[in-house]
Amino acid sequence: MVLREQIYKKNCTIVKNSKKTMQNRKMFFTIVGIPATRPYLVGVKESYHICFTSHEEVMFRDREDHGMFVNLMALRAFSMDTEILVDAEMSTHVHLGIFSGNPQQFAAALRMSYSKYFNRKYGRKGRMGEKYTFQLKIEGHVHQMVFQNYVLRNGLHHGASATTLGYPYCSARDMFVEDIGLLAEKPVSLSREDMCALLPRHSEFPDHYRMNAEGVFTRQSFMEIRRAEQYYGSPRNYLYQMNRLTDESWSREQLGDKTGAPLTIRDIEQADEKSITQMLKNESGRYYNRARMQDLDACRLIDKDLLPSFGATSVYQLTDSQKTQIARVLYHEHHLPEQLIRRCLVLPR
Fold first, then answer.
1. Alpha carbon distance 143, 253 (integer Å)
2. CB 15: neighbour CB atoms within 10 A?
3. Are 336 and 293 in contact (CB under 8 A)?
4. CA Rg, the chain, in Å?
5. Distance, CA of 154 to CA of 157 (rounded, Å)
6. Which pTM was predicted?
7. I need a labelling partner for 219 at 20 to 30 A (CA). Which of 84, 206, 207, 262 fits?
8. Which CATH number fits domain 32-140+162-225: 3.30.70.1290, 3.10.310.10, 3.90.700.10, 3.50.50.60?
9. pLDDT tens, 57-70?
């Protein structure tokens, strides 16, 4: 593994206790998109839940966006000495389980990097999502397991899959891969130069990072999957946790940690009671409809099939009148719900 000190020296010359040192440090952290304020003062690593949201517009319009977010997450994990245990990327929000000495700085750098990518690709301006990042410290072995359960089951809770393992944009399918009989994500043979060509400029990453055929870092190569698995103890318990229904036993089991109040789905999902109720109903998998169009499907329909007739390459180039015309098509011909249409077309409420 490449030492962080080697990375710093490669990008700038550091002379201890000099004005030039601080200028070089500031320049380096500006290049890689990390706040330069006190970059070396990182506290003791502790477990945190990080969540940021974008309810007015989708964060991911296609599979490439999901892949780039994973790449940026991997790069930030390395550059900011943060361990990522679990993740789930939904269309309007992201959940991360991390061990970090500065979780807010990590989240800010990741959000800024992704906003720059998204804005450049779609001709958009401004911050992506709501202003604040939700942060919750996790303490206790069972608390950590329950927290990971909620993150990994996000696709199921939001009706995006019939089972936890059926949702592709999370790390659920990277846990206990060999024991469960899942197909591990296969890395392809790429030179470091080829990998760098698929990443933002000045990207630095260790040699053990590997990419798949789509040019995305495999979660097995940069996430702390083994550490996340330890909280389950066995593949069988992991499968049980992924399939059990949420009930009062979840809270009772956490009392043994003696580290505070039990975590519930309301602590993880910052949503209204109606949404929470629907998430719990979705756990059974009975309400999942494979034929129902998800946000990613709707964005693909808009971007690939409908935008060309308006001479546009991005929804951010459309006028309000043009958006209204597309909205009518989505509502009357494809029978999509109003909220989905608004966030995929970036229509004001």
1. 9
2. 9
3. yes
4. 21
5. 5
6. 0.87
7. 262
8. 3.30.70.1290
9. 999 999 999 999 99
